[in-house]
Amino acid sequence: MIRGGPRRRTIAATPKPSAGAHAIPSLDVSATARREELKHLLMAARQCTRCAELASTRTSVVFGAGNADAELMFVGEAPGANEDLQGLPFVGAAGKLLEKLLGEIGLSRAEVFIANVLKCRPPGNRDPQPHEIDNCRPYLVRQIELIEPRVICTLGNFSTKLLRGRPEGITRVHGEAEVRTIGEHTARLYPLFHPAAALYTPSTMETLRADFTRLPAVLALPAPPRPAPVPVLATEPAPPVAEPAQAEQLGLF
Ligand code: URA
């Protein structure tokens, strides 16, 4: 899953808070530069207080972790208690299952990037609230723009509805790859049942495993064509730029 050879592509730099929607500069960004931007985004997320309740109850901001140059990205729902304590996504039972399923198709956790819709744990593991999803969306969109995965597996209802931009639930759309543009990046979305749901329901486990076995074929599809750029009319402010992070020290990417 490590990409072959350096890539150069044009993406928008993380705008400063004062920059309007029309002032997003385009840059040629190498893998190194993209990793640097990801570190800035990490630092911005770690200081985020957009959701007052989550900011006051979290132990850590669970930004995401893995290969910053991954072809395959997973997007779950929100950190749970273990993730909040360790600052890493999917470290509990659901994460172990995810690693096992990855292993069954010859992939390791280190080769992919794993993130969530919310970067902070909702108290008591309650569902993410719509305003929290809205507040956190710019971080996820920017992560996707910087990592540029070829395939994004949404895990469960929240990430599937958010990234498809459609209301259909995971039961209807799992296992069907489709091209979607998220921010400035076009990828194949491949919705999957959430591993936590599979832990409790054998039939869901069977379906999740069957969908996983088709993932290598989805990864082998050619990169989806980029649609013609459309002018950005309005957007939420991007996360503010912060001091460079020490992501390597945190073992995040
Ligand atoms: N469930 C999620 O959706 N994300 C995690 O990080 C852990 C469990």
Could you describe the 3D structure shown?
Strands 3-5-4-6-8-7 form a 6-stranded mixed sheet. The protein is globular. It has a single domain, classed as Uracil-DNA glycosylase-like domain (Uracil-DNA Glycosylase, subunit E, 3-Layer(aba) Sandwich). It has 253 residues and is of the alpha/beta class. About 9% of the residues have low confidence. It contains 11 helices and 8 strands. The site of uracil has 11 residues, from loops. Uracil binds next to loops.
Mean pLDDT reading: 87
The CATH topology name reads Uracil-DNA Glycosylase, subunit E
Number of domains: 1
From the coordinates shown, what is the CATH architecture?
A: 3-Layer(aba) Sandwich
Number of helices: 11
Pick out the low-confidence regions.
4-27
Radius of gyration: 17 Å
Percentage beta strand:
5-15%
What's the CATH class label?
A: Alpha Beta
Q: What are the secondary-structure elements, in order, as H or E?
A: EEHHEEHHEHEHHEEHHHH
Q: Can you say what the CATH homologous superfamily is?
A: Uracil-DNA glycosylase-like domain
DSSP strand count: 8
Inertia-based shape: globular
Summarize the amount of helix as a percent range: 25-40%
Give the distance, in angstroms, between the N- and C-terminal Cα atoms: 14 Å
Largest sheet: 6 strands, mixed
What characteristics describe this protein?
about 250 residues, alpha/beta, Uracil-DNA Glycosylase, subunit E, six-stranded mixed beta sheet, 11 helices, 8 strands, binds uracil
